[in-house]
Amino acid sequence: MRKALVFGISQEMGSHLCRALIQQNWEVLGIVRDSYTEAPVLSNLTLVEMGPEDMDFLHEIAEEVDSIFVHLPEAANRNFIFSMSQIIALAEKLQLQLVLTTNKYEIKQNLMSSLTFWNQKQPVTIYLPQKLKKRLQQAEKNGTKILVLCCGHSLSCTLDNGYLGMLIKETQSKVIIQSPGPDSLPHYWTYLPDLANNLVHFLDENESVEKPGLNITYYPGHQASINDIARCLELSSGKPVSVMPMRWTILEFIALFSPLFRRFLRTRTLWQHGSKPPASSSRLRTKTEMVHTPLELALKQNWRKLSRQN
Q1: How far apart (Å, rounded) are the C-alpha atoms in residues 161 and 213?
Q2: Tens digit of pLDDT per residue, the chain (310 long)?
Q3: According to the CATH classification, is domain 3-309 in 3.40.50.1820?
Q4: What ranges do the domains of the chain cover?
Q5: Which residues contact 295 (CB under 8 A, 6 or more apart)?
Q6: What pTM did the predictor assign?
């Protein structure tokens, strides 16, 4: 039985990843900050309580595993017990496979399209942050196997830091979506249970295949516009849905007082232009058909969760 060390299991992606790994007969060690941390209760999941001072203990338990999993979201989680640098060094020292999922990017915008008088909107190429990529390349040279799976916006109405949770407002009679970009511009959205399931299937099917030391690939997810999401929410909620523009000047003012909105502002160019992976990148492929939850069902499930919470 293969064994995984998973960071961030109290977050949505970490929880789904634990479930997907266990369904494929992995044994999972999940790192938590303390005994009060919310974590899934699953067979074959062992919770390990740690703090930033427990690096020696972390090395000790990591010697028992095959792979390390960590999700690095665009809205960087300040509750991380260990830094990415420490996690990469751990995989490097013990020669473990490191699996990183992320939507934290640098963007490379065409100079002309960034000018206010230039009306043509072109998708912006996204890249891993240069500092992170250089560190991963260094680990690759030292013999570490690394899979980086890049994804789009999180398709969730329940996350505090999820964009949909911030964009959607509900009244007794209708639902309002605040659109920070053109309503019809398609974006890449990721339903995290799909991402976790496809990632684990990919690893299982390619277990015996020789892979390059650093494999950076892109998860296609769901391509949908704000108008598509509005239509799906109308079906899911049973209420009329209206789309209202979100003014960036107002967001800039709110961002002076809100860390959440400051993070949101960093994605402004992607909202206005859309995104695309580098031409040299590959897409996640498995030997079996890709598993995708339809957008309507994904939104419906999240909507029901949100309704129950409210």
Answers
A1: 32
A2: 899 999 988 888 898 999 999 999 999 999 888 766 677 777 888 888 898 899 999 999 999 999 999 998 876 555 678 999 999 999 999 999 999 999 888 886 655 555 554 555 788 888 899 999 999 999 999 999 999 999 988 887 665 556 777 788 888 899 899 898 899 999 988 888 889 999 998 888 876 555 668 999 998 888 889 998 888 888 878 889 999 998 888 888 988 988 778 877 888 888 888 888 877 677 776 444 455 566 666 676 666 665 555 5
A3: no
A4: 3-309
A5: 155, 189, 222, 224, 228, 229, 232
A6: 0.85
